Batch of 4 targets.
Target 1
Amino acid sequence: MSERRPRAAWRRQPEPPARTPGSEPQPPEPADAAADRPSVVQATLYREGRKVASPATLAETFRQLREHPDGMAWIGLHRPTESELHSLAGEFDLHELAVEDALEAHQRPKLERYGDTLFVVLRAARYLDAQEEVDFGELHVFVGQDFVITVRHGAAPDLSAVRHRMEEDPDLLALGPEAVLYAILDAVVDGYAPVVAGVQNDIDEIETEVFGGDPAVSRRIYELSREMVEFQRATRPLVGMLHGLMAGFAKYGTDEELQRYLRDVADHVTHTSERVDGFRQALTEILTVNATLVTQEQNAEMRALAEAGFEQNEEIKKISSWAAILFAPTLVGTIYGMNFDTMPELNWAFGYPFAILLMAVVCTSLYFVFKRRDWL
């Protein structure tokens, strides 16, 4: 892909409406503002690694590239319209399946070759400190003999920094579209480093919260675990993609400098992928520990409730026992306290001692019965 070949015949399409290039990637805008924002972020022509023009429209970019077949066009788009992508497809002979993927977005990271054109899908990531969460973006890259087209969905990555870096190194940029692709790959992979650091800090905080008994920590573990699943989907396919590119070094005559550059990127993404796998494992173990601690805490609460219930039951037994003991003399006294003239034993000389003795016997008997049953 690094050898320069004559450009294929241009397939003309109706020129799209004029658009003014804006600055490189910005944070997401409201829907109404995004509708009025140009999709063409920047279009630049390079010759021998140096910028020669920054056309204001796609049509002007196409025209100038025709006039300088030894040049290279780098076109950056942000959520382009269907007509814009179809215009580019006609001009650069892009495959319809790749164009369809670039329009729909929500693709898995992949690398596909359509003739002389590479189509690469990347998932960029950035860590949002304020929300303590990971935000993912999607980037589609078309790499041809003399063009690079980037289609960005989301705020990440910041391709303006990649463009600035390449323009400051004309020797690297002179290596052509492959050099731009590898620079983009490097920027995406380097962007994972702050995410890894932020997630590591979150995991440390979660461990503290777990052993501190924070009731909201389970939700935070779950949300971070979902982000790590998404992060894993972004990084794991990159390992195979980069090894696939390295396998084609000899076939496509890739420059030796770019080979070293790509190997370095592959090392970084392998390291990042391993860290993400470690994060998922750590979160799984933390979730297990948290569940165990929650269960232990619930068991302790249930045991405390049971002990409190037992103590209350013992008190109720004592109260019930004394109530029964006191009820017996009350009953006898109540009967003998009724004012009836013909009541038996009313005029009996031993009536009073008998009533006292009866109350004493009943109370004593009840006391020993309850005592034997450990109610008193």
Target 2
Amino acid sequence: MLLASVLWGTTGTAATFAPGVGPLAIGAAAMGLGGLLQAAVAGRRIVRSRQRLAARWPTVLVGGAGVALYPLAFYTSMHLAGVAVGTVVSIGSAPPASALIERLADGRRLSRRWLAGAALGLAGTALLCAAEATGGGGATGAASAGRTVLGVGLGLVAGVTYAGYAWAAHRLITRDVPARAAMGAVFGLGGLMLLPVLAATGAPLLASWTNAGVGLYMALVPMFTGYVLFGFGLARIPVSAATTLSLLEPAVAAVLAVLVVGEELPALGWAGVGLVLACLAVLTTPTPRRTRSRARAGAAPRRAQPSSSLIAETRASPDC
């Protein structure tokens, strides 16, 4: 999950190498082509699981719609508000959205560890956003207040749709649909939905080798490879945990925006990066003492789970 977040963190910086390509085209190419590639690779698994997928078609439809809407909102948010702010708002709003969806749809209770980690992560993303909004980032400083506000609003839409398709994929996986089949079906449907957008806006991608290379990179590396890793993680941890761990993405995006794009990040922004890293430390540090105390107390054997403190402390919902 953390490796997927690192790959996703490169998307905003990569998009700056194709300034003549609009955000809708970038988003449609990245998620559309990447989603169709996932569906093609998982084709046999999708066919074998077609009856299970058909029985859960509303969940597949919700996931596909989220996949289609997310990149359009995300890349437009970065275009309007800047790479760092667009990424921070989009990804930073996903954990609370995921927690709300899990609470309402699955009745899942959140652990104290998750709440503490999420608080650190959201505080870090807020500091990053504040640092950019006060003039640290060249892209945001040049934007009008109206563009920035609209960009932040679209970032919130991106966060909700990200949480939505993550929840849909996780729900399919925990309903006996193989992870590759679930991810391939959800992302393949989203990719099909994005094809008309790509056809209408994608001509600049063919205007130069650089533009085409950016489009291919976005589709193959962050989207295809990143979401294969994401599906692997979703099969093992709750959605709220997955989206919280993805808070590493805005930190990576902010650092790359400084090192590659040339945006400036003041001390407040670096403090935000530090809080995001602290969030990840809280969520991934093992807690062996709790496990040992259970053993001494004669607790009943439990099904083996990954040795993450977040997973160990997160109570599984009845649906999972």
Target 3
Amino acid sequence: MGRVPNVTRADALTALRNPLAFIAARWTPEPRTVRRAALTALVMSVVIVVTGGAVRLTGSGLGCPTWPKCTEDSIHNTAEMGIHGYIEFGNRLLTYVLCAAVGWAIIAARSEKPRRRSLTRLGWAQFWIVMGNAVLGGIVVLVGLNPYTVAAHFLLSSALIAVATVMWQRTREGDGEPRPLVGKAVQQLVWCLVAASVLLIAVGTVVTGAGPHAGDSSDVERMPLDWETVSKLHAVLAWIVVTLTFALWFVLKAVDAPKGPSRRTRELFVILLAQGAIGYVQYFTELPEVLVGLHMFGSCVMWIWVLRVLLSLRERPGVANEAPTAASEAGTLTRA
């Protein structure tokens, strides 16, 4: 067992004033550690969506009928609340695991040398989204699972996944100026794909809000829309996303694009086909809970890969790897 370093009163005061700076001054993580921390935060952001879906699909949305406590007298569930109380309270506990994962990503990013402020900002952005979504989750419970607040809850979770995906990608890149790997027309096509995917996810929340899985066995308000009509609109948008992905794959082959964008697009196309198959099966089998849960997981994976396609269109080399010319040094100083 090694010696415990002496910590002076000044060190303790410094740690209290700025704990991140205190840790960063004494620890330098390996790049692999930073990447793993960012990936852990991304995985947990997907896990919290899937477990939140499980709460809804098991009718446990009001398993803890109040917030921030589980009951008026207890912060946790009680045996009298049954399985629904355990499911809902378990999902609340996972929020703390998510916070820990995001906190670990922030600490690792802040401690990396040289310091990369962009990574730290992305980590803090995740933290504030998690805090905002925790409050919104409490509002969802307090208003009795109002479908509009539930939809907003899911959309904010999708925003968290987006930021976590970008941070994970940035840990694998340098801080140099981004260099496009494809032409402007291809970039515009991908942005159309991103926009269509956002619309697809948003309409998917409307399908859920108008559908039969209200989240609780009580009389929960639903969106006053025809569920089948909205489902058909969702399917049309899904086919638009599939068509755009196939068109992008074809264009990338035609222009002999680098392997990265082509590989990510091919992977996205396969994910979309699998997601579409699950969607159609669940529609014609009257929405079994297991398939709906798989569809929610597939939605998260699809969204991550759409963003990976977007991020694969450019590369960001390390600043230190650039040619040490006077012009590049002047440009770096100007950007700083």
Target 4
Amino acid sequence: MKANVLFAIGDLRYIDVDKPILKKNEVLVNVKAAGICGSDVPRVFTTGTYQFPTIIGHEFAGEIVDTFSSKDKKLIRKRVSVFPLLPCMECDNCKRADYETCDHYSYLGSRCNGGFAEYVAVPMWNLSFLPDSINIEDAAMLEPASVAFHALRRSGFKIGDSIAIVGPGTIGMIMSQLAYLAGAEKVFLIGRSQTKLDFAKNIGITEYVCNSVSDDVLQWISKNTNGKGVDVAIEGTGAEQSMDICINIVRTFGTVLVLGNPITDMNIKKNSYWKLLRKQLTLIGTWNSNFGTSKTDWLPVISLLQKKRLKLNSLITHRFPLVDLIKGLEIMKTGSEYFNKIMIIND
């Protein structure tokens, strides 16, 4: 089969490799669509994966074409999306069914082979079966959409709350939609790129957008919340400037939720730290999404897609064949043109 294999930092090759050999309770998925995550860019160009060689890619969907056990052959031709985290099932977190916080997890696309290939072996436990009404590109975005849903749930957001999302990337734009669906009074989207903000506004993500480079964010939030600040502020970039904005725009007794992967060490300014104390803010972390339990984030997102309430396809700005994965990665690395979600299609 063909696959995009990372042999070393900066050494990504589209080559022929052996098809996966299935283990007990695994199925073989023919990947039909796979999204490039922002985390894939440093994985390829700066940090690497946990071992080499690795087939990267963790946001994907496709069709089951084979099963380990003959008794599971009825699953062949079923369309699925895949939860990429592989929990150990033995640590204390797993025993509590908090699988996303597993102490000894593996992960498709970074710790073991993932979805930027024609085929991938997936444990049946990690499968989400797709209704016919959900197209395969939307299905490939179930992972980031579930991360966004999990984050919003973690924030304690309530109907009628105002929410500010700092970081107008794919997950930020998905979360903006989810916040409105959950009954937000106002959703503010804040970022440094006017192109991203204009894109969000043009496709109807929110009418409230603010450029943190050219505008006075604190004054803008104050004007639009009658001086009190937002109820929930979400840091979605992993940059200390964004964290500083969140602490300053949230109201007294408000919540700051930290979502973005850190770019480097995070430092909090003294004056902002004072506000964290004096406003008695709640600081919450979020990680991945819940799966495989009654608290799953995936089934509600699937339901929203099925009902056509959540719009993911409009976030896709580029589509490339499997052979051209590196082109999409280069666009994201260099910022040579505007992108939101870049989708790899394997016809």
